[in-house]
Amino acid sequence: MPVASNPLKKALAERRLQLGLWLGLPTATTAELCGGAGFDWLLVDGEHAPFDIPTIAAQLRALEASTSHAVVRPPIGETWIIKQLLDIGAQSLLVPMVESAEQARALVSATRYPPRGIRGVGAALARASSYNRVGDYLATADNEICLLVQVETLKGLANIEEIAGIEGVDGIFIGPSDLAADMGHLGNPGHPKVQEAVRSGLERIIGSRQAAGILTADETLAQSYIDLGATFVAVGTDVTLLSRATAELAARFQNKRQSSTATQGY
Ligand SMILES: O=C(O)C(=O)C[C@H](O)[C@@H](O)CO
User: Per the domain annotation, does 168 fall within a domain?
Assistant: First the structure.
């Protein structure tokens, strides 16, 4: 039996728009809940949210029955953690801070078994092979890995065409917040110069025949990136949605309380 096919990899190769949501809340319940919302992909953020290997595995289990495909972001693009993430069953990875073709090539190698790469062989013990019940796992796993790399520095931007040319890279994601920081505009990804760099980065990715991706919670901006041709676009985060919705609800009732207190003459 071959490993399960990867719908995100296929959709990106066919340049079909994939809408995503970022998961920063490290609970399987919220992942399961968001998994029913209708997004094409959900990003489990192991870079900035408090996840470890067991909690990422719990997110993958929670999303197993979902039509939203799980993408995992490791804190750093190193072989040891990539091996652990693949063995717990992540098929799609978004690797932060990729700045060169050499780095992209090393990441491809970390995700593939020999002779194509250097992934360690131990999936017989692991969730990825359904604990060795997927008989053809070793022969079929490589073909279903989706490797997305994140370009988020000026150095990375300068090397987009070289990174895009590495076989085994399935898409390039621009990180607006880190790019803004690298450009001297920490905390201001909306700065016109950063936006100019983001848009030109997306255009160059698309021009290099790669799928381009990005995250923004600004709906107008998200639509403009989609109109530009971005293929995988995350349009919000669970943390922001919950934080905003709870604050707005509380504020509405605080306002009502103030007006009813006034009419009750307290
Ligand atoms: O640089 C960026 O932008 C990203 O990498 C995404 C962020 O980490 C962030 O917006 C997650 O909330």
Answer: yes
Closest ligand 1 atom to 176 CA: 3
**48 annotated active-site:** yes
**Does some domain include residue 185?**
yes
Full domain range(s) for residue 99? 7-265
Is the residue at 16 inside a domain?
A: yes
Q: Do the domain assignments include residue 233?
A: yes
| CA of residue 152 to ligand 1 center, whole Å | 9
Q: Strands, E, within 46-200: which ranges?
A: 69-73, 92-95, 146-151, 171-174
pLDDT of 198-226, one tens digit each?
Answer: 999 999 999 999 999 999 999 999 999 99
Which atom of ligand 1 is nearest to 179's Cα? 1
Closest by CA position to 128, among listed 254, 11, 119, 157: 119
- Model pTM score: 0.96
Ligand 1 centroid to Cα of residue 259, in Å, is 40
